[in-house]
Amino acid sequence: MSHTSRQIKVIDSHTGGEPTRIVVSGIPDLGSGSMSERSKVFREQHDWLRSSVANEPRGHDAMVGALLLPPHHPENLCGVIFFNNTSTLHMCIHGSVGLGVTLAHMGKILPGPHRVETPVGVITLTLHEDGAVTVANVPSYRYRAQVAVEVPEYGKILGDIAWGGNWFFLIQDQGPVVRRENIAELTAFASAVKRALAEQGITGENGEEIDHIESFGPPIDATLADSKNFVLCPGHAYDRSPCGTGTSAKLACLYADGKLQAGQTWRQAGILDSVFEGRVTPVEGLTVIPHITGSAWITGESTYVYDESDPFRHGIPTLI
Ligand code: PYC
Q1: Is the pLDDT reported for residue 2 higher than 80?
Q2: Contact 37, 48 (CB under 8 A)
Q3: Is the CB of 64 under 6 A from ligand 1?
Q4: pLDDT per residue as tens digits for the range 108-145
Q5: How large is the average pLDDT for residues 49-60?
Q6: What is the pTM of this model?
Q7: Sign of the alpha-carbon dihedral angle for 306, 238, 118, 40
Q8: Cis ω on the peptide bond leading into residue 290 (within 30° of 0)?
C-alpha cells in the first residue's frame, strides 16, 4: 500500500433526499479569482478531485459535490463550486441548503443571512432557528414560453425554457405521469426530450445548453404541495429533492404567466414528496429573485485515502 499524503475531508448531508458532499479541506489551489474562474481551473486541472468525490466507489450517480472556498470578495462569507458525476454545475439550491447546514455543523455560521459566491452570482443563505435554510437565488427568468420540440416516440412536446441558476425545459402534464413508480419511464422520456432539444438546436439564451429537463404533474396531496415534479440532471440521475434551481425556473414561469404574485408561497414537491417552499421578489420586468426554503440533515464526515496502487482511486467515470 502506498497512500499519498492527500487529506481530503468531506461532510455529507441530504436535502429532501438528494445528497450533497462538501469538500471542506484538501482542495488544490484554484487561484484567487471569481468562482467562475476557479471553476474553470477546477474543470481543466483537477477533474480527478470531482470524479473521486462524486463517482463510484466513493460516490454514485446522484451525488452532488461542492468545494468550500475562500471568497473572492472579503465581504462575502465563502465561495462554492458545485459539481456532479460528469462535470461542474452552474448552481445548485438543494446543495446550498446542504451548505448552510454543513457550515452550521462546522460552527462557522449562526442563524441569520450569509452571502455566498457561486460561478453564476452571489446568493444569500439564511439559516433559521429551526435549522431550515432559505436561499435567495440569482435572478431568474423565463426565456421562451411553450416551445415545441418533436420527440421521437413521444411526438410534439411543449415546454417553457427558463433560467433558475441552470437552464431548464419545463413540461406540464405531458409524457409519463409524475409518480415515483414511473421513475424509469420519466427518465427515458426526459432523456429523449433532452436529446431532441440538442438535435433541433433548441437552447437557452446565447446558445447555452438546456441540461435539466423538468416534468410537472398534480401533487399527491394538494394540502401539502401545489405541484409535483421530476427533474433529470445533466449526469443522467434524477433529483431526489424538488430541485431548487428547477423550482426557481418554475416560479419565474408562474410569475411571467401572472399565476404567482410577489411574496406568495408556492410549495413544490419532488418525486419523493419532499417539499421546497418558494416565493419571488421582482427585480426588473419579469425577472425575479426566487427565495427557496428547505431542510437538510448531516449524514456523515469522512477523510479520503488515495492509494497509488488503487486503479479507481480517482473514481469510475460515468458514461452517458
Ligand atoms: O436543487 O438546484 C438544485 C439541484 C440541481 C441539481 C440537483 N439539485
Answers
A1: no
A2: no
A3: yes
A4: 999 999 999 999 999 999 999 999 999 999 999 999 99
A5: 98
A6: 0.97
A7: positive
A8: no
Mutate to test the pocket of ligand 1, among 13, 61, 89 (most ligand atoms within 8 A of CB): 89
Tens digits of residue pLDDT in 181-194:
999 999 999 999 99
Q: CA–CA separation, 120 vs 31, rounded Å?
A: 18
Side chain identity at residue 246, one-letter code = G
18 lines ligand 1 (CB under 6 A): yes
Judge contact between 220 and 226, C-beta under 8 A: no
Exposure b/e, 203-214, CB count within 10 A at least 16 = b: bbeeeeebbbbb
- Express each pLDDT in 269-279 by its tens digit: 999 999 999 99
Q: 287 has which bridge partners?
A: 284
Q: Give bridge partners of residue 91 from the DSSP assignment.
A: none
- C-alpha grid cell, residue 14: 441530504
Closest atom of ligand 1 relative to the 248 alpha carbon: 2
Q: What is the pLDDT of residue 320?
A: 76
Ligand 1 nearest atom to the CA of residue 243, by list position: 1
CA–CA separation, 314 and 144 (whole Å): 40
Residues tagged active-site: 92, 243
